[in-house]
């Protein structure tokens, strides 16, 4: 497996994001449509600063992206691994790559938001030493959000 830094217009990255959006739509079927629309607005690809795609035998199987959040704080966005490729540590490798790049770029902290029903994501982040924090803007008023943070060393 290899991880490649790509442009946010990259076709592999955008194909994975479309799959992620469909997955989240089905996963969060119990959330009211008005709140779903709010979440969708927070996931604009145009706001992203960097993107990474994981490949296995030239097939794009996972992605993650970043967004500048505040001075020295980077927000992790759009972490996704194709369901057929899960269980091999790909998400962990993507997060590690993102953290390494963030540290090299001078960031001191990473924040991330996920849905309260996404226990796999919460488990991954806590396993990787992310700590639960109060919901940060724009998620501070959304009851289905869980926010986490990690200080980079």
Automatic annotation (TrEMBL):
Entry keyword Transferase: yes
Keywords from the UniProt entry: Transferase
CDD domains registered for this protein in UniProt: NAT_SF
Coiled coil region boundaries: none
InterPro entries with a match to the protein in the record: Acyl_CoA_acyltransferase (IPR016181), GNAT_dom (IPR000182), NAT_camello-type (IPR050769)
Pfam family, one: Acetyltransf_1
N-acetyltransferase domain location: 1-153
PANTHER family xrefs: GNAT FAMILY N-ACETYLTRANSFERASE (PTHR13947), LD18367P (PTHR13947:SF37)
Protein name in UniProt: GNAT family N-acetyltransferase
């Amino acid at each position: 497996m290899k991880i490649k830094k790509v442009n946010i217009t990259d076709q592999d990255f955008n194909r994975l994001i479309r799959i992620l959006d469909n997955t989240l739509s089905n996963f969060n079927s119990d959330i009211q449509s008005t709140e779903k629309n709010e979440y969708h607005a927070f996931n604009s690809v145009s706001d992203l600063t960097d993107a990474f795609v994981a490949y296995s035998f030239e097939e794009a199987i996972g992605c993650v992206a970043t967004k500048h959040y505040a001075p020295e704080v980077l927000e992790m966005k759009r972490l996704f691994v194709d369901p057929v490729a899960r269980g091999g540590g790909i998400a962990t490798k993507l997060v590690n790559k993102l953290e390494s790049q963030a540290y090299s770029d001078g960031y001191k902290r990473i924040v991330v938001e996920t849905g309260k029903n996404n226990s796999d994501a919460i488990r991954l982040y806590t396993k990787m030493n992310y700590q639960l924090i109060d919901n940060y803007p724009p998620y501070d008023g959304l009851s289905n959000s869980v926010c986490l943070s990690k200080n980079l060393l």
